[in-house]
Amino acid sequence: MKRFLATLHRDLTVALRTGTEMLNPLMFLVLVGVIFALVLGNDHATRELTGIPVVWTTALFANMLALEGLFRREHEEGTLATILVSSESALPATIAKLVAHWLVTGLPISIIAPVIGLRFGLSFETLCMLTLTLLAGTPVLTLVGAIGAALVVGSGRGGVLLTLLVLPLFIPVLLLGIGVCQQFHFNAEYVPPFLGLLAILSGSITAIPISIAPILRFSQDQ
Q1: How many angstroms separate the CA atoms of 135 and 156, rounded?
Q2: How many Å from the N-terminal Cα to the C-terminal Cα in the chain?
Q3: Vertex 176, ends 174 and 179: CA angle to 5°?
Q4: Which of 132, 139, 159, 146 is nearest to 65 (CA)?
Q5: What are phi and psi of 16, to 5 degrees?
Q6: How far apart (Å, rounded) are the C-alpha atoms in residues 10 and 84?
């Protein structure tokens, strides 16, 4: 627990001081969302139909912007190898970094993205469902993205390589998130896809954190 709290406090402090991990994804989210809303014009039917896919897709790519730096700072400082030496400290530290990343990127995105949805004329109830699906989906994006970030941290080749690794794994979450919101918006059955999204979240929380440390050790050895 001490290792978890120390790592969480350090990562949150660094993120809030620099501001880039939080501001860059949010600026991307707002700019792209507003541009799409302007391009679609005043056609309410078109804006309403495309609003949910645009907001969810933009939120996904905004989340990806911060993935490359998830383990990079510790790798460059040389502290990552020290953390990974002990299996007792590796898991709490890894979980703390994942939690910090979601608090800095996923949570703000989940809050701001529905505000962008107002530009598309979505109803209050649909915006609430959009927020709920993002709160369930963005932790999965962080967890799955952490696998890709761990694989490329030692190679010095992030960016496009990381995107190619994680983007196919993000597609099920994206489709389920959009599907739940659209089914809800058009008064169709939305519970099955929502349960599917929760199942992915539950499986990711259970399996991924314990697999990150071995992946990081493998990447460090390359």
Answers
A1: 31
A2: 30
A3: 105
A4: 159
A5: -70, -30
A6: 17
For residue 11, give the nearest of 76, 94, 87 by alpha carbon.
94
Query: What distance in Å separates the CA atoms of residue 202 and residue 139, rounded to the nearest whole number?
Result: 10
Backbone angles phi, psi at 17, to 5 degrees: -70, -45
pTM of the predicted model over 0.85: yes
Instruction: Please report which helix (H) or strand (E) contains residue 46, including its range.
Output: helix 44-65
Q: Which candidate, 134, 138, 165, 137, places its Cα nearest to that of 149?
A: 165
Please return the burial class of 206, using the count of CB atoms within 10 Å of its CB with bins 0-12, 13-18 and 19+: exposed
pLDDT per residue of the chain (222 residues) written in tens, 0 to 9:
777 888 788 878 877 777 666 788 888 888 988 888 888 777 777 777 888 999 999 999 988 888 877 777 776 666 666 666 665 667 888 888 899 889 989 999 999 988 888 888 888 999 999 999 999 999 999 999 988 888 887 666 666 778 888 889 999 999 999 999 999 988 999 999 999 999 999 999 999 988 887 887 777 665
Single-letter code of the amino acid located at 158: G
∠ CA 127-133-138, rounded to 5°? 120
DSSP 120: G
